Structure formats: structure tokens, C-alpha cells
């Protein structure tokens, strides 16, 4: 039951048709096995890259697709509905390219952005640390200036694509001036002194590699500083505004997949001589699930359209991340209920969807942090 979409152009309609074809034929058939074996699908990201999906919202002059966020996010939703780990990875890659694209010099963008968007490279976003998650200004990884280089030491935590990324957008401390002492770097994925710890053993998204990233005297050229020294937190928070819309779209894709599976099962499962979808108790539950998916989609599209028009969208991004991820948690839980005992087994995908939904309420700012952002925006 593909989601009905109101897209702005014929080009966008053709793009979404291509994305659905890739999701149906190349992603969905592999998802369960890769997740079961905790296998990272690097080849699928190369496929997305060759199809032009890794750079959809970025300018054509650098190899991007020049698509509005409204279109990019709906493409992302389709990917996530087929395979959540790949959807989250796509969102992280796009966010990891943001700092360079939005704050880099013309020379930096010309040098590195085309490769980042072309499809062969995969990005990671290195902000969080074990003691600096919601409190990003407390990070301690340090980049000390040494002539024409910076020497980086510290450990990043919960990094998607750690150890497999080809580049990282790295936030590191260049002075002790609190949040104003953080700077942004476009760091290579492989450098002397840069290692990744063993992958985390996670509840869900087991096909997505998450690990600590360790910097031991890693030398970065001063030309890899993005923006000025001290701009890092500003760049990080700006990237997160857009990234939260990406996670919101992924959440809706997951919820849509759970709804589709529940409806399909309810139509074919019979009890007392009738399909269970004919019983009002199940019919109303499915109706509530559909309403949650449709309303959640509207929240992320509202944020995307404001972003596309150059309007402030921080509050809308926080609302979307909050509403969409809470909806995904509820819809996937209800999908397990619709399937009953079958839903609790690994013979059906809804138990995996439910496990995957939980982390959406946590990363890229917990939903408690989203409430804090919304409240602060209301006070202004």
C-alpha cells in the first residue's frame, strides 16, 4: 500500500518511482537476513550513490540532485520503509555532508563535496561522546593547533558508520571557552591514529554499524577546518535541525511499513469465520495507526517546506522528530498486537520494526530534548 504523495513536479514523481523500485527490488529482499546476521550493507549505499540518492538535496554543481527537502525526505521515507538501517544511514550521510556544503569555503566545497555526493563515499557524523550526548557543549575531544595542522585526541561515542565511513564531520574542542570553543572539521575516514572500537551490540538497527571512534594524535590539515574556530556548535546544531527532519521521515517510513504489514495480515487472518479486519476492535486499531502515520507525515513535510522557503524551521523540526518517532513507536507496537502471537516471532517483520522504532526516540536529540527545544522557541 504505497503512501499517496502530492509531489511538486513531474521530475519528483519520476524520482519517487525510481526510489520505490530500488526499495522494492534491491533493499526489502535483503533486509531481514542482514539484520539477523548484523551485516553492514555497504554495497547498498554504493547503489544509492550510483542512483543519485546520496546527494539529493545538494546543488547540481557539486554532483547533487538539487531537490527540495520536501522531495528528498519523501524519498528517504521510501528507503526507510524498505530497510530502516539503510534509511538511517542515508540520513546520516546527508547530514554529514551538510557542514561542508553550508559552511565550507568555495575551495573546500570544490575539493571535497563532489566526492562526498558522487556515491562512492559514505559519511559519518562525529559529535556525541559518552559524557556529552544531549549536552553537546560538554564534549572534550580536542584539536590542538600545531603549525599548519591540528592534532586531534579524544573518543567519540555512538557514531553511525564508525570504522566504515570514508569521511566524518568532526566536532572537536579548540579552546576551553565552553560551547564557543568547539570547531568543525571535515576529517578523512582513514588516518594514522584513527580507529573504531568494536560495534555496539544493539536492540535494533543491527545492520547499521555503531561504535566509538578513537582519535590518538590524528593530524588534520588546517585546510580541513570548516568555518572559523569556535563555529562548531553552531554548525552542529544547524545540521541537527535538518537531520531531525531526516529521522522524522525515517520514522514515518518505518510506521508505514508496520501499518502495511498489519493491514495485510488482518485481511488474510480469519477467526470465527471472518477476516479479523472485519471486527471493529481491530478496524479501529488500524484506523488509529493510519491516522498516526498520516498526521506524522504532515509534520515533517511542514518543516521541510519551511526549510525550502528559507523560513525558520527549528521548532517545526523538533515537533516533527518528536511526533514522528513517538508515532513510529506506537504504530509498530500496535502492529505486533494486530498479528498477535505471530507478531512476537521473527517469522514476521513487525517484531523487528518495534525494536528499531525505540532508538528513534533517542538519537539526534532525545524526545525530551525536542520538548526543550520547542519550549525555548515558544519563549522567544
TrEMBL record:
PANTHER family, sorted: ACYL-COA DEHYDROGENASE (PTHR43884), ISOVALERYL-COA DEHYDROGENASE, MITOCHONDRIAL-RELATED (PTHR43884:SF12)
Alphabetized Gene3D superfamilies for the sequence: Acyl-CoA dehydrogenase/oxidase, N-terminal domain, Butyryl-CoA Dehydrogenase, subunit A, domain 2, Butyryl-CoA Dehydrogenase, subunit A, domain 3
SUPFAM superfamilies, sorted: Acyl-CoA dehydrogenase C-terminal domain-like, Acyl-CoA dehydrogenase NM domain-like
UniProt family annotation: Belongs to the acyl-CoA dehydrogenase family.
Keywords in alphabetical order: FAD, Flavoprotein, Oxidoreductase
Annotated Acyl-CoA dehydrogenase/oxidase C-terminal domain residues: 230-378
Domain Acyl-CoA oxidase/dehydrogenase middle per the UniProt entry, residue ranges: 125-218
Cofactor entry: FAD
Organism encoding this protein: Saccharothrix xinjiangensis
Location of the Acyl-CoA dehydrogenase/oxidase N-terminal domain: 9-120
Protein name per Swiss-Prot or TrEMBL: Acyl-CoA dehydrogenase family protein
Membrane-spanning residues: none
Keyword Flavoprotein part of the UniProt annotation: yes
Family annotation (InterPro entries): Acyl-CoA_DH_CS, Acyl-CoA_Oxase/DH_mid-dom, Acyl-CoA_Oxase/DH_mid-dom_sf, AcylCo_DH-like_C, AcylCo_DH/oxidase_C, AcylCoA_DH/ox_N, AcylCoA_DH/ox_N_sf, AcylCoA_DH/oxidase_NM_dom_sf
Source superkingdom: Bacteria
Amino acid at each position: 500500500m504505497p503512501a499517496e504523495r502530492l509531489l511538486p513536479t513531474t521530475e519528483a514523481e519520476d524520482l519517487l518511482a525510481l526510489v520505490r523500485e530500488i526499495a522494492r527490488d534491491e533493499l526489502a529482499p535483503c533486509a531481514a537476513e542482514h539484520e539477523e546476521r548484523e551485516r553492514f550493507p555497504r554495497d547498498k549505499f554504493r547503489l544509492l550513490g550510483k542512483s543519485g540518492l546520496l546527494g539529493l538535496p545538494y546543488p547540481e554543481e557539486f554532483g547533487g540532485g538539487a531537490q527540495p527537502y520536501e522531495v528528498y525526505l519523501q524519498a528517504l521515507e521510501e528507503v526507510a520503509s524498505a530497510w530502516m538501517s539503510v534509511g538511517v544511514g542515508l540520513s546520516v550521510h546527508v547530514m554529514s555532508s551538510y557542514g561542508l556544503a553550508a559552511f565550507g569555503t568555495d575551495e573546500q566545497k570544490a575539493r571535497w563535496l563532489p566526492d562526498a555526493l558522487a556515491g562512492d563515499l559514505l559519511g559519518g557524523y562525529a559529535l556525541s561522546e559518552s559524557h556529552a550526548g544531549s549536552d553537546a557543549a560538554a564534549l572534550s575531544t580536542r584539536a590542538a593547533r600545531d603549525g599548519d595542522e591540528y592534532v586531534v585526541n579524544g573518543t567519540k561515542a555512538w557514531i553511525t558508520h564508525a570504522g566504515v565511513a570514508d569521511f566524518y564531520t568532526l566536532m572537536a574542542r579548540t579552546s576551553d571557552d565552553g560551547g564557543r570553543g568547539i570547531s568543525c572539521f571535515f576529517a578523512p575516514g582513514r588516518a594514522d591514529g584513527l580507529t573504531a572500537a568494536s560495534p555496539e551490540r544493539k536492540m535494533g538497527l543491527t545492520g547499521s554499524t555503531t561504535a566509538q571512534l578513537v582519535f590518538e594524535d590524528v593530524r588534520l590539515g588546517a585546510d580541513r577546518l570548516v568555518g572559523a574556530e569556535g563555529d562548531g556548535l553552531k554548525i552542529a546544531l544547524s545540521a541537527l535541525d535538518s537531520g531531525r527532519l531526516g529521522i522524522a521521515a525515517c520514522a514515518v517510513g518505518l510506521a508505514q511499513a508496520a501499518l502495511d504489514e498489519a493491514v495485510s495480515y488482518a485481511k488474510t487472518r480469519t477467526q470465527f469465520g471472518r477476516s479479523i479486519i472485519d471486527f471493529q476492535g481491530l478496524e479501529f486499531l488500524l484506523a488509529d495507526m493510519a491516522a498516526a502515520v498520516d498526521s506524522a507525515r504532515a509534520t515533517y513535510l511542514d518543516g521541510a517546506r519551511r526549510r525550502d522557503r528559507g523560513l525558520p524551521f527549528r521548532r517545526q523540526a523538533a515537533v516533527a522528530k518528536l511526533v514522528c518517532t513517538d508515532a513510529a513507536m506506537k504504530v509498530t507496537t500496535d502492529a505486533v498486537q494486530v498479528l498477535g502471537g505471530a507478531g512476537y516471532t521473527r517469522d514476521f517483520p513487525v517484531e523487528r520494526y518495534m525494536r528499531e522504532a525505540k532508538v528513534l526516540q533517542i538519537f539526534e536529540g532525545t524526545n525530551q530534548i525536542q520538548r526543550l527545544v520547542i519550549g525555548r522557541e515558544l519563549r522567544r
